[in-house]
Each structure stands twice: as C-alpha cells, then as structure tokens.
Specification:
7-stranded mixed β-sheet, 120 residues, 4-stranded antiparallel β-sheet, mainly beta
C-alpha cells in the first residue's frame, strides 16, 4: 500500500551538488523519523542523515557541513541537499520513513534506491 519514490540521483563531478527527494504514496498513520541511507558494494547500509518529526537532525560525520536534510510533512516528502560532493559519497541512496503504528509498534518503509555517482 505504501510506496516511497525517490528522484534526483545521477552523475556529478566532485565539488558539485545534487538534491534528492523522496515522496510517499499511500496511507501512513504517523511518520516519526525520515532518513537517508547510503549503501556501497561490499558494505552494509549506513545512515547519512535523519530528521525527526520535530525537525531535529542527525548526520554522519562524513556528511556534516555538506549535506542538509529537510522534510515537508503535509507532502510526506523528505529531501537531501548534497553539496561539495566527493567521490567517496558515491553509492545507492535509500530514503526511509519510520511509521509509528501504535504506542509500541513501529515499522520502516524504504525507497527503491537512487544511484549517486561522483566522479573525480
């Protein structure tokens, strides 16, 4: 029922910028945290940036000062502005919505992933 659709990935030269977006369709009761994760071949998926329902943000050390995560709650959309991109930022980026289904019940929804490639 719920589907997350990502866009904005692509190929960019080092030092360039990209803006990723992820919008959810379907019914989600309550979205607590939204986040962006990156996965590189041979390594597990890791958190890049997250934003709480109240707007508090958290970034991986590698993203601090360069990436900015924002959300638009009425549109069920999360964005990731990526500036000063480096080759090591290359990977598949997945958006994540954490839904609170009850006081004690949560579940995660994931996008299909969008490829970001930063060339030297």
């Amino acid at each position: 029922q719920v589907q997350l659709v990502e866009s904005g990935g692509g190929l960019v030269q080092a030092g360039g910028s990209l803006r990723l977006s992820c919008v959810a369709s379907g019914t989600i009761f309550r979205i607590n945290r939204m986040g962006w994760y990156r996965q590189v071949p041979g390594k597990q998926r890791e958190l890049v940036a997250a934003i709480s329902s109240g707007g508090d943000t958290n970034y991986a050390d590698s993203a601090k000062g360069r990436f900015t995560i924002t959300r638009d709650n009425p549109k069920n959309t999360v964005y990731l502005q990526m500036n000063s991109l480096k080759p090591e930022d290359t990977g598949i980026y997945y958006c994540n919505f954490n839904e609170q289904r009850s006081v004690v019940s949560f579940r995660d929804y994931w996008g299909q992933g969008t490829q970001v490639t930063v060339s030297s």
